[in-house]
């Protein structure tokens, strides 16, 4: 019979936000040139693509692109890599972000997708990326941001998720890992911090769910992607 | 990086590890730089193949190297004969198999395999399918493999029936099978589609049918068989969530056709409101208004400026056009893009008129069920209820019972539905906000149905713990709304779709329409959507925290200038 895959959070896991440790971790990471480039490049590719998409929509056939993305919608309201591919939180994030930037959020079945997304929350409070997988801090971003975009972030238990994310911190080195006890890396550190911001942590700047950038930066350049209420 | 456990080591162990890493790094960097140099110099030789192979064996996610390797292979295609090319690509498939053994989840390796298979002069699709079988038997949630399998099936024309049988086998033997049920959801409509106009026949699939279009319909005969299959799955293992997700999809209704669902005309305001079955951008879909045979030049506006896409649009007619109550007028609204239209006649002596398909007509909240389907669903409900007694803490049972009751008789089962939702919130408290919203949605659907059966324009739903408002596009004609004693914290912007919330003073009668809110409205911003209800005259806010704020009366007067009757 099916065993529920999940992690156990130990009683001595970190339970408060170790801001200073994380600042030190990221600062130190910048000094190791090769590693830094690999991680940042992937992220910037995404961000730059989004920025181009929002600034120069006329260079691509947006209708066809929307048609393609919608053709990737599945029976459960989610999206996969290609038409016919299984729903996955990472792809769902890309597609909801895309539909927000192209003003097509009304094409989603927000109630159905929101249900699939809130079912990603496991008893530990962490979120997985699809059914019967282990929780992972980066899904605190992919899943949470998607829920925020479709106006259903209140469908997950925020307190339990926050507890999970905090437990993924490394008290010695700073930074966040995918799960409590694992090795930290900048990728999970970004998404742990961003996830906490979406949950309303007042020590962190408000983050925009579509572009994963601080809201005040986007306000400055007048970029406010659609969100469902 | 996923799944790397942090292990503590001594300072000496750290130093030894560091030295070893340095050495490996030097070898790696040398090989990598050699590849980059060769590529820059346009070299596509054997050494390049060897170097890239060496690096990709342990770094299959190094996309640039796969790109270079493909350039080398493309070059070889031009200087070797077909038999040689066949051998080269077969060797490539062999190399890829060893890569996949080490890392079966590398995007780079799977993509390259797909590329090679497509270029192979004599592909062996049976072998590729068998590779997928083996890979999936080790991990049937490997989506890379599933996607590759779909490509192989498409390229080699494997019959849909054969793949359906494959999913049967997998579902029968493995408990982690969301991927199989998902695949099934894409295959079923291909094999057993419901033709759009014929009720429930199993015919030949139209060539252009795609599971991802709004034809998510499966013909009824097959649907009923499918219920049985899924039931076997969740009875065997009630905690296997995939079957429950799939079952919810089977219980769902097909998406509605795109059409104009309502046209409303107000003589006094000289305004036309149009409701669509789904959100549209009226300014770009060719919406045409014809009045007494004459096309009218009008500006269509969304009910709320923020929404470019909306199910409800309004326009104003030139003053004097229809204001004389002695005249009869005929209106037609054309949705030219969809070749759909709706007529509405405004008779003499009448101050308003409408033409609509009700929620009941459109089977929005409940489908008309055939005798067979009713019988099947009733026995399903009975079975799941029995299962729920055996597994009182299983939330899937509870939710599915609710969904079955909705499908069978939403009004008849209302009380039971509410009780089950309460249990559900206790059993699965993490998602209690979801269940509250879902319950609110179902209560609103029931209220709309009751309103339609009674043929009144009063929407009254109080003391139902409503946490959200939805289906507001169905309330276009509502004149009187009562939302007291609920848990609403704000009015959604879509509230502006209630275009008929207004006062009318006719020659023969005086009618007062008002709102009664006794929820959790606490700030002025919460009431913003009311500013879009054109002629709201009376507002009862008693019992809401907002009445306690200083200067509330003055601020409300500023926000809602048309309200003359404000009860605080």
TrEMBL record, chain A:
Top-level EC class as recorded in UniProt: transferase
Molecular function per GO: metal ion binding; Rab geranylgeranyltransferase activity
Reactions catalysed according to its record: geranylgeranyl diphosphate + L-cysteinyl-[protein] = S-geranylgeranyl-L-cysteinyl-[protein] + diphosphate
Cofactor note: Binds 1 zinc ion per subunit.
Domain Prenyltransferase alpha-alpha toroid residues, every copy: 42-213
EC number: 2.5.1.60
Protein's name according to its UniProt entry: Geranylgeranyl transferase type-2 subunit beta
The organism of origin for this protein: Cyprinodon variegatus (Sheepshead minnow)
Organismal lineage: Eukaryota, Metazoa, Chordata, Craniata, Vertebrata
TrEMBL record, chain B:
Ranges where the Rab geranylgeranyltransferase alpha subunit insert-domain domain occurs: 260-359
InterPro entries with a match to the protein in the record: LRR_dom_sf (IPR032675), Prenyl_trans_a (IPR002088), RabGGT_asu_insert-dom_sf (IPR036254), RabGGT_asu_insert-domain (IPR009087)
GO annotation, biological process: prenylation
Catalytic activity: geranylgeranyl diphosphate + L-cysteinyl-[protein] = S-geranylgeranyl-L-cysteinyl-[protein] + diphosphate
Pfam families the UniProt entry points to: PPTA (PF01239), RabGGT_insert (PF07711)
Catalytic EC class: transferase
PANTHER family: GERANYLGERANYL TRANSFERASE TYPE-2 SUBUNIT ALPHA (PTHR11129:SF2), PROTEIN FARNESYLTRANSFERASE ALPHA SUBUNIT/RAB GERANYLGERANYL TRANSFERASE ALPHA SUBUNIT (PTHR11129)
Protein name as catalogued: Geranylgeranyl transferase type-2 subunit alpha
């Amino acid at each position: 019979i099916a065993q529920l895959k999940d992690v156990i959070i130990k009683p001595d896991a970190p339970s408060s936000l170790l801001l200073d440790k994380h600042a030190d971790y990221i600062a130190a990471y910048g000094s190791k040139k090769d590693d830094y480039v690999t991680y940042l490049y992937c992220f910037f590719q995404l961000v730059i693509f989004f920025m181009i998409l929002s600034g120069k929509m006329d260079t691509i056939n947006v209708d066809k692109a929307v048609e393609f993305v919608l053709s990737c919608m599945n029976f459960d309201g989610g999206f996969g890599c290609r038409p016919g591919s299984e729903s996955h939180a990472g792809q769902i994030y890309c597609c909801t972000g895309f539909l927000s930037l192209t003003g097509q959020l009304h094409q989603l079945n927000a109630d159905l997708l929101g249900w699939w997304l809130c079912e990603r929350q496991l008893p530990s409070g962490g979120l997985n990326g699809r059914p019967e997988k282990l929780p992972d801090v980066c899904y605190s971003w992919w899943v949470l941001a998607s829920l925020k975009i479709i106006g259903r972030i209140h469908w997950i238990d925020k307190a339990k998720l926050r507890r999970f994310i905090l437990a993924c911190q490394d008290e010695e080195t700073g930074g966040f890992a995918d799960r409590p006890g694992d090795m930290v890396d900048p990728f999970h550190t970004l998404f742990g911090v961003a996830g906490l911001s979406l949950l309303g942590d007042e020590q962190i700047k408000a983050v925009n769910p579509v572009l994963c950038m601080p809201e005040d930066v986007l306000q400055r350049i007048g970029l406010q992607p659609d969100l469902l209420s | 990086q996923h799944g790397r456990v942090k292990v503590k080591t001594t300072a000496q162990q750290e130093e030894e590890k560091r030295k070893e890493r340095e050495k490996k790094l030097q070898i790696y960097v040398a090989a990598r730089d050699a590849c980059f140099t060769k590529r820059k110099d346009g070299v596509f030789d054997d050494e390049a193949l060897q170097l890239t192979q060496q690096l990709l064996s342990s770094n299959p996610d190094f996309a640039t190297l796969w790109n270079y390797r493909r350039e080398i292979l493309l070059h070889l295609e031009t200087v070797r004969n077909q038999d040689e090319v066949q051998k080269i690509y077969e060797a490539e498939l062999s190399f890829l198999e060893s890569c996949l053994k080490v890392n079966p989840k590398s995007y780079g390796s799977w993509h390259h395999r797909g590329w090679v298979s497509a270029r192979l002069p004599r592909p062996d699709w049976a072998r590729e399918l068998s590779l997928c079988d083996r890979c999936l038997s080790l991990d049937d949630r490997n989506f890379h493999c599933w996607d590759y399998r779909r490509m192989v099936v498409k390229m080699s024309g494997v019959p849909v029936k054969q793949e359906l049988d494959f999913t049967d086998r997998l579902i029968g033997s493995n408990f982690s099978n969301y991927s199989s049920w998902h695949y099934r959801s894409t295959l079923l409509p291909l094999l057993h589609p419901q033709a759009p106009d014929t009720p429930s026949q199993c015919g030949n699939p139209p060539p252009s049918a795609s599971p991802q279009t709004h034809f998510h319909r499966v013909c009824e005969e097959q649907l009923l068989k499918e219920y049985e299959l899924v039931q076997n799955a969740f009875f065997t293992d009630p905690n296997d969530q995939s079957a429950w997700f799939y079952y919810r999809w089977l219980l769902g209704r097909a998406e509605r056709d795109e059409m104009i669902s309502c046209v409303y005309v107000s003589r006094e305001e000289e305004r036309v409101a149009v409701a669509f079955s789904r959100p549209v951008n009226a300014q770009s879909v060719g919406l045409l208004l014809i009045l007494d045979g004459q096309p009218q030049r009008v500006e269509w506006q969304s009910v709320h400026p923020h929404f470019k896409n909306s199910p409800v649009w309004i326009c104003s007619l030139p003053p004097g056009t229809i204001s004389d109550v002695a005249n009869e007028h005929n209106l037609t609204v054309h949705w030219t893009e969809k070749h759909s239209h709706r007529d509405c006649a405004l008779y003499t002596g009448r101050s308003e008129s409408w033409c609509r398909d009700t929620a009941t007509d459109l089977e929005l909240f409940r489908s008309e069920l055939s005798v067979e389907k009713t019988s099947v669903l009733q026995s399903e409900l009975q079975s799941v209820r029995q299962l729920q007694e055996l597994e009182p803490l299983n939330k899937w049972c509870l939710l599915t019972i609710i969904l079955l009751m909705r499908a069978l008789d939403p009004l008849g089962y209302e009380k039971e539905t509410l009780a089950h939702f309460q249990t559900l919130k206790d059993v699965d408290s993490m998602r209690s906000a979801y269940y509250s919203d879902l319950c609110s949605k179902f209560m609103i659907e029931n209220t709309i149905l009751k309103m339609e059966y009674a043929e009144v324009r009063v929407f009254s739903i109080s003391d139902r713990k409503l946490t959200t408002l939805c289906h507001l596009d169905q309330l276009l004609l509502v004149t009187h709304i009562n939302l007291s004693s609920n848990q609403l914290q704000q009015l959604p912007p879509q509230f502006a779709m209630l275009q008929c919330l207004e006062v009318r003073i006719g020659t023969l009668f005086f009618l007062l329409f008002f709102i009664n809110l006794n929820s959790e409205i606490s700030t002025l911003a919460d009431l913003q959507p009311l500013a879009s209800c054109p002629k709201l005259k009376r507002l009862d806010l008693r019992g809401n925290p907002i009445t306690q704020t200083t200067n509330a009366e003055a601020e409300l007067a500023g926000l809602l200038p048309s309200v003359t009757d404000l009860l605080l």
